[in-house]
User: Which sequence fits this backbone?
């Protein structure tokens, strides 16, 4: 009995070490891919930006976007409490905090329902709107069958825009 326990313990230890090593080796690669994805999302909505500067403080992560040395807008990383899990959204805004576009970067919502927040038809509703114009049922339509996910994104984007101060 002791021998089987020892063998099982050794196998578990080796598996844990291999898992830890894999995590350590892939963590910087994953972070680099996330950064690339965030920057590509910003560039899609704020074209011809030649410099994107990442800013991290205690409250948020955002990007300052420059064109020919002039500040033209921001990329705001927003987190929304979705139905299944947290939703990560990139919001590109100009200097006046008018939304130029949003893109859902990460989500684990219900496939076929909540996951529809990633579709262009949902994101297009946000374009050229300010925070006060993000009103569910008036200016923004929820996705049928995914009201919780839709509301979460709308409210998180609205709140971030209202609170954002550089």
Assistant:
């Amino acid at each position: 009995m002791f021998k089987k326990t020892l063998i099982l313990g050794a196998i578990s230890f080796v598996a844990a070490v291999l898992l830890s090593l894999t995590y350590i080796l892939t963590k910087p690669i994953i972070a680099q891919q996330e950064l690339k994805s965030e920057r590509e999302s910003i560039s899609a909505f704020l074209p011809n930006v030649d410099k994107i500067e990442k800013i991290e403080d205690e409250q948020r992560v955002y990007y300052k976007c420059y064109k020919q040395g002039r500040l033209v807008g921001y990329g705001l990383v927003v987190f929304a409490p979705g139905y299944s899990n947290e939703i990560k959204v990139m919001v590109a805004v100009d200097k006046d905090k008018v939304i130029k576009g949003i893109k859902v970067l990460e989500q684990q919502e219900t496939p076929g329902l909540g996951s529809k927040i990633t579709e262009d038809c949902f994101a297009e509703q946000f374009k050229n709107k300010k925070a006060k114009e993000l009103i569910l049922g008036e200016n923004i339509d929820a996705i049928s069958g995914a009201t919780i996910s839709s509301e979460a994104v709308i409210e998180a984007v609205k709140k971030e825009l209202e609170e954002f101060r550089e």
